[in-house]
Amino acid sequence: MSAPSGSISVDDLPYRPCVGIALFNREGLVFVGSRTRASGPEHVDGQHSWQMPQGGIDPGEDPYKAALRELHEETNVQSVTRLGEAPDWLRYDLPLEIIGSAWRGRYRGQMQRWFALRFTGQEDEIDIRAPAGGRHRPEFDAWRWAPLADLPALVIPFKRQVYDRVAEAFRPYAVPEASAR
């Protein structure tokens, strides 16, 4: 494959290091947000705007700390306990037609470290309109709790394989909290 500019091969582009967060409530449902149109073509295709929180790892940042930071920046949530971590880094490639516009054409896709967290706060802590106390621009325009198994069908198709693997890895946490003990 070659990049849109023709000067560099897509195969030579790196993957963007990121984290993903499966935030489970006490009933075993997972947080899913509808990405805003301003989020960019790597997130929204007109039919599939739902996804779990995710975002980049800063240089030198610990992936778990990045997960906590990204969760706060996208949802305002800080009241969590760690349930688990996917055993492997998961990757997806962007479709060729958006590689040049997503992340300024610097990446071919993402390699993600996924964490499962239990939300221990009250729902009024969730604030997608003014996340991180209003210090971060909103990335979601709606949210809801959903069964983990439903998420692969909600996400943009080129991320579906990652969501299938996340759903498989985190299936043990998709139960009511009392059942998980």
Describe the structure in your own words.
The chain contains five helices and eight strands; from the N terminus they run ββββαββαββααα. It is α+β, with helices and mostly antiparallel strands and 181 residues long. The protein has a single domain, classed as Nucleoside Triphosphate Pyrophosphohydrolase (Alpha-Beta Complex), CATH 3.90.79. Strands 1, 4, 5, 6 and 7 form a five-stranded mixed sheet that branches. The protein has a three-stranded antiparallel sheet with strand order 3-2-8, with no helix packed on it. It is globular, with a radius of gyration of 16 Å. Residues 1-5 have low confidence and may be disordered.
Task: Describe this structure in a few short sentences.
Helices cover 19% and strands 27% of the residues. It has 181 residues and is an alpha+beta fold. It has a single domain (10-171), classed as Nucleoside Triphosphate Pyrophosphohydrolase.
Question: Top keywords for this entry?
Answer:
181 residues; alpha+beta; Nucleoside Triphosphate Pyrophosphohydrolase; five-stranded mixed beta sheet; three-stranded antiparallel beta sheet; 5 helices; 8 strands; 19% helix; disordered N terminus
**Structural classification:** alpha+beta
What is the first-to-last residue Cα distance? 48 Å
CATH-defined superfamily? Nucleoside Triphosphate Pyrophosphohydrolase
CATH domain topology: Nucleoside Triphosphate Pyrophosphohydrolase
User: Outline, from the CA principal axes?
Assistant: globular
- Give the rounded overall mean pLDDT: 89
Q: Which residues form runs of ≥5 with pLDDT under 50?
A: 1-5
Q: How many domains make up the coordinates?
A: 1
Estimate the strand proportion: 25-35%
CATH architecture: Alpha-Beta Complex
Helix content: 10-25%
